[in-house]
Amino acid sequence: MEDLLKRYSKHQRFRLRATTFVRLNGILETLKRHLPAKAKDITRQVVAEYISTRSDSVKPASVTKEVSVLKHALNLAVDWGLLNSNPAQRAKLPKLPLGRTRYLSPTELKAALEACGRSKNGEDVVTAPVWLRAPIALAAFTGMRRGELLALCWRDVDLENRRVYLRETKNRD
Fold it and tell me: Does the predicted TM-score (pTM) go above 0.70?
């Protein structure tokens, strides 16, 4: 299993952002600690027990992510001829709570923009710097993530056609 996860890590290294790759390695270490030493010893029952025990100690989203990585690693093991089948393929994942995606209401957005550069209660304490107003508005109106905003360059901005091109996104679209 350790060799498989090392190979999987090398396979993913140049396919992921650096921060995502760090997260992946943490997941791989968790899988290594909780699963049998030999990949051929992983069965559907072992995967089900893993999901059950991990669900007791971490959030459902974490378990879902870990099992997703396990499924992908085992699928590649099948493709590489190391395993005959993927025992995690039809694993029952924990239910994720609804409503994780949240957007600012118009009132909340207005309050956030007004907080930039405004002192609190007439004192000299600034709640947010004034320069933060534009990035907050850009993020709110485009749906860009922090990393996407920080990676923007002028060559990505087409003022004539009013477009911004994102070279690297989380979902690769």
Answer: no
